[in-house]
Amino acid sequence: MDIQNVDYTTKIPNNVNLAEDRQVLRALESWHPGYIDWWMDMGPEGFQQALVYLRTAVSVDPKGWAKFDYVKMPDYRWGILLAPQEEGRTIPFGRHYGEPVWQDVPGEYRAMLRRLVVIQGDTEPASVEQQRHLGKTAPSLYDLRNVFQVNVEEGRHLWAMVYLLQKYFGRDGRQEAAELLQRRSGDADKPRMLGAFNEATPDWLSFHMFTFFTDRDGKMQLESLAQSGFDPLSRTCRFMLTEEAHHMFVGETGVGRTIQRTCEAMRAAGIEDPTDIDKIRALGVIDLPTIQKKLNLHYTLSLDLFGSEVSTNAANCFTAGLKGRFQETKIDDDHRLEHATYPVLKFVDGEIKRVDEPALTAINMRLRDDYTADCQRGLDRWNKIIDKTGVAFKLELPHVGFHRQIGEFKDVRVSPAGQIVDEATWNRDRSQWLPSKDDGDFIASLMKPVTEPGQFASWIAPPRIGIDNKPGDFEYVKIAA
Ligand code: BYC
Ligand code: FE
Ligand code: FE
């Protein structure tokens, strides 16, 4: 079988020759019904019978891996897809730098590796749970299709991690796979593992911010796991990244279209001042200062996902060759980092200072810096949209010390501008910096479903091009199927 092509004759589509891997096939087949139960209970609410114009991966060839068709989501072909094995690949960093990659789990790193796979796996179903109610308020059929596309692919990402657990981690892998279906986002007793994945996604602006900021953490984490010396993890993540690009597209263009609509409505109404909130909201659009607050919230929740700035976990994973840096193979250094340093922002003696730390323990900080730069490029594109309409406003990333729950700044109050503030100032200005209840209520009041093909809610502009080049009035979701 050509590795690029996926075997769809089996119950579980795959390009890993599952048919001849009886034990793993059996484990996956016995996990499958529990997954479907989870999807029916926790997947998109109210749309399980709708026909959705979805892409399904049919190959892992970057030049044509997906095919589009109408599918009922529970019938989506969730498959196990790994990027092709690279001949002669060697471990690109850490203590084992230059040695051939591992095709099996090295015994000494088993626990560390399992933890990485479980954490990665846990985020995927969590995001589906967080987004399950959004279908009811989608601003268009185009957007409705997009959230469902993201959801089925996050479901597939769960499959990807479950395959690794069941193939390479024996009985405890099967146990972890079962538990991935038991935790629930936001549940007091059995929450998802990482903070941001227990937060609500109350409205579509949050959804678009989430796919911009939090899926982008996904991209960065997957990029560094794609460097892994454990080759099956690397290959899995490489293919996941192909899908991830669309999730961030949904976020960036979703926020971009929201911004565009706001600015156009302001111009049409002759409103110059972006902070004239009541007048702007009366137009049925979301004012830019509120968009900035949502951005502040989702960016900082996502910063927490990088862990502590200084982390021995991160150093150990790097040295072991399990998790590398962003674009590790393109970095010009010794890839061992035993003697290198990296500047880390810390809270020292009441001040925010840049301190040189051993580069190994600063691995999380470095990835987070790369993440921030990637986010900034997206903001620059959003600001161009604002500029073009002539509205005087600029979106900015808040200071990394602002509103943090993990790491150096978790016990300090820092303003978005990076000033350390006291509790009284924080409480006074908090509603200028983060979405308030009023802001949430206003946004909620705009969240009315629009289900007519080619029509869009008042607060968001239509996309410039359709999915799969479909025309503007294409019926992306046939709701009453
Ligand atoms: N929330 O040494 P530390 C995605 C815990 S998103 C709660 O600072 P480390 C997606 C930590 O577990 C990508 N707890 O951090 C996006 C540890 O606890 P234990 C997901 C947290 O380990 C959208 C302790 O604090 N993938 O794919 O260096 C939709 C000290 O940890 C948090 C990954 O994250 C937190 N935010 O780094 C769908 C990749 N942060 O073990 C999908 C795999 C830290 O001492 N994960 N803690 O009890 C990792 O590489 C690392 O585990 C982390 C943390 C980067 C998450
Ligand atoms: Fe994912
Ligand atoms: Fe994603």
Brief write-up:
With 481 residues, the protein is mainly alpha-helical.
List keywords for this structure.
mainly alpha; 481 residues; Ribonucleotide Reductase, subunit A; binds benzoyl coenzyme A; 3-stranded antiparallel sheet; 5 strands; binds fe (iii) ion; 7% strand
Give a structural overview.
This protein has helices at 22-42, 110-131, 141-168, 170-180, 204-226, 231-268, 277-281, 288-303, 312-320, 363-389, 423-433, 437-446; strands at 51-57, 66-72, 341-348, 351-358, 477-478. It has 481 residues and is mostly helical. The protein has one domain (18-478): Ribonucleotide Reductase, subunit A (Orthogonal Bundle), CATH 1.10.620. The strands form 2 sheets. Strands 2-1-5 form a 3-stranded antiparallel sheet. It has a two-stranded antiparallel ribbon with strand order 3-4. Strand 1 and strand 2 form a beta hairpin. Helix 1 (22-42) packs antiparallel against helix 3. It is globular, with a radius of gyration of 23 Å. The chain starts with 21 loop residues before the first helix and ends with a strand. The mean pLDDT is 96. The structure holds benzoyl coenzyme A and fe (iii) ion (2 copies). Residues 116, 119-120, 123-124, 127, 154, 194-195, 214-215, 217-218, 221, 304-308, 311, 313-314, 323, 364, 406 line the site of benzoyl coenzyme A. Benzoyl coenzyme A binds at residues 116, 119-120, 123-124, 127, 154, 194-195, 214-215, 217-218, 221, 304-308, 311, 313-314, 323, 364, 406.
